[in-house]
């Protein structure tokens, strides 16, 4: 009895479904066929099924759902369309909400499945960036996900889109942040370090522009000013044994006929034995013609008579 009942029961279901099933794209309800609604699919003519998140069906009487295209998403089941991923966002998963681009990335248009990375020398410091900006002049961008950093004193960057700053050349300096160039160390000064202001050359030394050190006056020269660009020749009748001190007159009994000496090397003779007296200073003979210390005396002033 039970066996017969079961066979008849199953047979009845098959008869009923084969008789009452609608065509695909429709579903059956109380014996009637209804068109499958958007966001759903009707693959067997019996039931209406909901499209999953990440899928859609965009019209009536669909028998299947389509997967969202790359760069589109539907985050809810039953969608009749997919949304284009917005600008500044990516949609790596079609069944989830868009994800903002991380700093260092950007999405310049709608419909990006993944964000693009900023190129070296460009940056986006915020999330949801729609563009990467070039690192400005005077700045460097060691990473793409941080704000540009000003070139520190002693360095510079003339170009945009740089990942580093350049050091000033020797003999140049800049004491500011964010420099686009370095300054040449002026004459009379020296720049031992590029991140400090020029230092005046001390007395007895000099420099031309662009120097890291000052040069000591050579033997027989002097200067007595700070920040000198040159040294001066010791004048005739004088000697310069210390470049920091004014020329000193040759002591009595000695002389220099030419400039640029560090000592007085010529000794005056006594007048009767000298026939040609060159620039004699303070010699006994010079005193005859009233030459004072350090003064030069014309030739032949001291004569035999
Ligand atoms: C980045 O975010 C900061 C702080 O919210 C804001 O002040 C700045 O304008 C943003 N920059 C860009 C390029 O959107
Ligand atoms: C340069 O920037 C640093 C760090 O921000 C700061 O400490 C320094 O005072 C700045 N120097 C100048 C000259 O502005
Ligand atoms: C450099 O020398 C000139 C001329 O002697 C002087 O007027 C000026 O004040 C000096 N500057 C410095 C920084 O020493
Ligand atoms: C030197 O000077 C003194 C005093 O001024 C003067 O009497 C004398 O005649 C001068 N001698 C010569 C050689 O000019």
From TrEMBL:
InterPro entries reported for this sequence: Growth_fac_rcpt_cys_sf (IPR009030)
Keywords assigned: Signal
Position of the signal peptide: 1-20
Name this protein carries in UniProt: Tyrosine-protein kinase ephrin type A/B receptor-like domain-containing protein
SMART domains, sorted: Ephrin_rec_like (SM01411)
Organism: Didymodactylos carnosus
């Amino acid at each position: 009895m039970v066996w017969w009942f079961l066979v008849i029961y199953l047979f009845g279901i098959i008869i009923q479904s084969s008789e009452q099933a609608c065509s695909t794209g429709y579903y059956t309800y109380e014996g009637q066929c209804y068109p499958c609604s958007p966001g759903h699919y009707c693959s067997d003519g019996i039931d209406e099924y909901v499209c999953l998140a990440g899928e859609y069906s965009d019209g009536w009487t669909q028998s299947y759902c389509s997967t969202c295209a790359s760069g589109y998403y539907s985050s809810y089941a039953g969608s009749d369309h997919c949304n284009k991923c917005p600008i500044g966002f990516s949609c790596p998963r079609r069944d989830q909400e868009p994800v903002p681009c991380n700093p260092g990335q950007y999405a310049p248009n709608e419909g990006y499945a993944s964000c693009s990375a900023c190129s070296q020398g460009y940056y986006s410091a915020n999330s949801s960036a729609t563009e990467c900006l070039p690192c400005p002049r005077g700045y460097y961008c060691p990473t793409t996900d941080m704000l540009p950093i000003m070139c520190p004193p002693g360095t510079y960057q003339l170009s945009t889109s740089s990942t580093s700053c350049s050091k000033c050349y020797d003999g140049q300096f800049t004491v500011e942040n964010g420099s686009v160039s370095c300054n040449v160390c002026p004459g009379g000064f020296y720049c031992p370090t590029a991140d400090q202001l020029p230092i005046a050359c001390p007395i007895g030394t000099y420099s031309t522009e662009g120097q890291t050190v000052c040069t000591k006056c050579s033997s027989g020269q002097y200067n007595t000013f700070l920040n000198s660009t040159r040294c001066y020749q010791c004048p005739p009748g004088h000697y310069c044994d210390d470049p920091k001190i004014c020329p000193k007159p040759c002591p009595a009994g000695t002389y220099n006929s030419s400039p640029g000496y560090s000592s007085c090397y010529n000794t005056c003779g006594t007048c009767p034995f000298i026939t040609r007296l060159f620039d004699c200073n303070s010699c006994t003979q010079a005193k005859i013609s009233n030459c004072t210390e350090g003064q030069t005396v014309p030739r032949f002033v001291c004569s035999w008579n």
